[in-house]
Amino acid sequence: MKHSLENGVLTIYLEGRIDSNNSEAVASEMQSIVDECNPVELVLDAEELEYISSAGLRIVLRFRKANSRFKIINVSTDVYEIFDMTGFTEMMKVEKAFRKLSVDGCEIIGEGANGKVYRIDADTIVKVYTEGSFEDIQRERALAKKAFVLGINTAISYDIAKIGDCYGTVFELLNAKSLASCIADDPEHLDHYVELYVDLLKKIHATEDNDGDMPDMKELALKWVEIAKTYLDEESGKKLEKLVNDIPKSNHILHGDYHLKNVMIQNDEALLIDMDTLALGNPVFEFGFIFNAYIGFYSLNLQDAGKFLKITAQTSFDIWDKTLQLYFGTTDKAVLDDYTKKAKVIGYIRLLQRAVRRTLHNGEDHSAAIAFYKQELTKLVAELDSLAF
């Protein structure tokens, strides 16, 4: 039986089949290796393990009880099902083997803060994470599953793959296109696509989660306020903090990064594909981020609006306007202007902290942006008595 020992971690490589015919022989050989190496941690690598019976499972359990630091890795799908069905995945760490994929030459159909989404073939897309740990990826998959169970239209993730040195989540999306691509290819039907976009947004915001496993967006926004206050005069800073604090707590779901590249169209149905930013809160937070996607990021140079989404600047402005009108069911300019001001406050708080962070940590010069956000926030805070939608 092959094994390796490195920094106190003993890895034993399992092969073939473990059943009633050979389980005790396997156990005896494993125990001899453990006694010889005296490891701090025991790892069973199951990449070459084809089958394990209940007799083999009892052997695994025996070694798990004798070694507090223990895990099984590189488990094939078939063998993982045995561990999962018998409850072993709840008693110990069992890691599936990841199939390997290449995205060389693949079309990028979506992009977010933590990765890019590629189309592998007509049926399959993969989100490749450029940042974040494996645990972060598992968390996003869990959130996506929860959203799906709660009735939100999401692309279904069915696997994790290895893409070079990065991990990716695999989704089945037959003949689907990003909403950004749909609009770019068929601008005459912009109104229809925005209707699909807003209908899905309303469905998200109408869904509640009371389990407490999603972050509270207001808590995060208050951290951005602390940064913003250092750039505002005392009166404006205190009022900004009060405005955000007074936003009512809500258990309704927010997407957190809702733009055209994170929504897919499949058979004229809108589906979400990026779920790592799911949170709970008042819709004003969502609209602050939506404003940034279409206008806020380009406030210093509005002619660049739409570049990230690969649409024209005018289309970007139009989508923002149409989204507000359809979501709130009004074309009253005064009402829509009020919603826009509230969204701008949230959007500019986020952009200000982003500019400050990049200045401090990356050594970039964002002084012009910081000055602009400071000026806009000072003006908006003076005009508003509430941010709640």
What's this entry about, in short?
With 389 residues, the chain is of the alpha/beta class. The chain is 46% helix and 21% strand.
- Shape field: elongated
String of helices and strands: EEHEHEHHEEEEEHEEEHHHHEEEEHHHH
Proportion of residues in β-strands: 15-25%
Read across the widest sheet, the strand sequence of neighbours is 6-10-11-9-8-7
The helix count comes to 13
Helix share bin: 40-55%
Radius of gyration: 26 Å
Largest sheet: 6 strands, mixed
Segments where pLDDT lies below 50 for 5+ residues? Answer: none
**SS content category:** alpha/beta
Q: CATH H-level name of the largest domain... which superfamily?
A: Aminoglycoside phosphotransferase (APH), C-terminal lobe
Say what the CATH topology of the largest domain is. Aminoglycoside 3'-phosphotransferase, Chain: A, domain 2
CATH class of the largest domain: Alpha Beta
Count of the domains: 3
Estimate the mean pLDDT confidence: 92
Number of strands: 16
Specify the CATH architecture of the largest domain: Alpha-Beta Complex
Distance between the termini: 64 Å
Describe the protein in words.
- With 389 residues, the chain is of the alpha/beta class.
- The chain has helices at residues 23-37, 54-66, 77-85, 88-91, 134-149, 179-185, 190-205, 217-229, 234-245, 283-294, 313-328, 333-362, 367-383; strands at residues 3-6, 9-18, 41-52, 70-75, 93-96, 99-100, 107-111, 115-119, 124-129, 156-163, 166-172, 177-178, 253-254, 263-266, 269-272, 279-280.
- The termini are far apart.
- The protein has three domains: 3-97, STAS domain (Transcription Regulator spoIIAA, 2-Layer Sandwich), CATH 3.30.750.24; 107-172, 2-Layer Sandwich (Phosphorylase Kinase, domain 1), CATH 3.30.200; 177-383, Aminoglycoside 3'-phosphotransferase, Chain: A, domain 2 (Alpha-Beta Complex).
- The radius of gyration is 26 Å and the shape is elongated.
- The protein has a six-stranded mixed sheet, with helices on one face. Strands 1-2-3-4-5 form a five-stranded mixed sheet. A three-stranded antiparallel sheet has the order 12-14-15.
- Helix 1 runs parallel beside helix 2, helix 8 (217-229) runs antiparallel to helix 9 (234-245) and helix 12 (333-362) runs antiparallel to helix 13.
- The model has no long low-confidence stretch (mean pLDDT 92).
- The protein has 13 helices and 16 strands.
- The longest helix has 30 residues, at 333-362.
